[in-house]
Design a protein that fits this description.
- It comes from Nocardia albiluteola.
- Keywords: DNA-binding, Transcription, Transcription regulation.
- InterPro entries: Tscrpt_reg_HTH_GntR, WH-like_DNA-bd_sf, WH_DNA-bd_sf.
- This is GntR family transcriptional regulator.
- Strand 2 and strand 3 (about 75) form a beta hairpin.
- The protein has helices spanning about 15-25, 40-45, 50-60, 80-100, 105-120, and strands at about 35, 65-70, 75.
- Strands 1-3-2 form a 3-stranded antiparallel sheet.
- Helix 1 packs across helix 3 (about 50-60) and helix 2 crosses helix 3.
- About 60% of the residues lie in helices and about 5% in strands.
- With about 120 residues, the chain is mainly alpha-helical.
Length: about 120
C-alpha cells in the first residue's frame, strides 16, 4: 500500500497516513474486507516508526474504517465508508439543534457557510 507521507508537513505523519487510507477507501481502491499490511510491515515500507502506524490504525479502527480480527490481521471494515455515515449523522444532529433553537433553513445554512469559511 503506497501512501505518500511528507515528513516536512505540519500535518503529523499518523494523520497523513489516516487520511491516505480513508481517501483510498472512498476512491474504491481499498474495498471492504481488504487485508491491510501489519503495523511493522507498513512502517518499514513507508519509513515510519511502528508507533506512528499503530496510532493511525487505532484511530481508523475507532472511526470504523478498520476492523482487527485478532491474529488474522486488520481489514477494511465491511460497513462501507464510515466517514460518510459520521458526516450524515453530524448533519442530522445539527439540523435537530437548529430546529430546537427555532432557526430557519437560511440561518442554518449561513452558520454552515461561516463555519466552512473559518476552516479554510
Amino acid at each position: 500500500m503506497e501512501i505518500p507521507v511528507d515528513h516536512h508537513s505540519a500535518v503529523p505523519p499518523y494523520e497523513q497516513l489516516r487520511q491516505g487510507i480513508i481517501a483510498r477507501v472512498r476512491s474504491g481502491e481499498l474495498t471492504a474486507g481488504t487485508k491491510i499490511p501489519t503495523v511493522r510491515a507498513l512502517a518499514a515500507q513507508l519509513g515510519l516508526a511502528p508507533n506512528t502506524v499503530a496510532r493511525a490504525y487505532r484511530e481508523l479502527e475507532q472511526d470504523g474504517v478498520l476492523e482487527t480480527r485478532g491474529r488474522l490481521g486488520s481489514f477494511i471494515a465491511s460497513s462501507g465508508d464510515p466517514t460518510q455515515d459520521a458526516a450524515g449523522h453530524a448533519a442530522t444532529e445539527y439540523v435537530a439543534a437548529v430546529r430546537r433553537l427555532g432557526l430557519d433553513d437560511e440561518a442554518a445554512l449561513r452558520y454552515v457557510h461561516n463555519a466552512l469559511g473559518e476552516q479554510a
